[in-house]
Amino acid sequence: ELHGKKITLRLKSIPSTMQAQPDAAFLFKLKRNRGYHIFVNNNYEPTGIDYRELSFNALVGWLGHEFAHLIDYSSMKNRELLGFVTAYVFDKRETRRTERQADRETIKRGLGVQLLDGVAFFEKNEKVSKRYRKKKNKNYLSEEEIITAINKKCD
Description:
Number of strands: 3
Distance between the termini: 26 Å
Largest sheet: 3 strands, mixed
Order of helices and strands: EEEHHHHH
Helix content: 55-70%
Strand order of the largest sheet: 1-3-2
Radius of gyration: 15 Å
């Protein structure tokens, strides 16, 4: 689904570990010519997580989560994507729904164990800021929910 899409991976200071988004000029391009970015936080101050401390599996799981977002974005027309971005920013329920769906899509595509490794790292990491921990716990699947989803996929 993302074959042939322009995707850049960049280090950037952001308020989360990773972030996927369409290129800012997406409104002025045809859907098929749209570009996407995955940003990886290079400033661990806001989150307490240094991406360089993640295991290979955790990196794969969290990048898989970001690619799940890109798959979702790539299916939207520009107007839909603009509406989605607006809802994501201003509606906490939409943020939660979107992040949990990206986790489920990551598991569906065979990266559940890797996602679980990243979540386990997050849960055990004492350096994670309270604010970031609260945000992650509220909006993303828990370890237990990921294990349940992996087991259902294997049935």
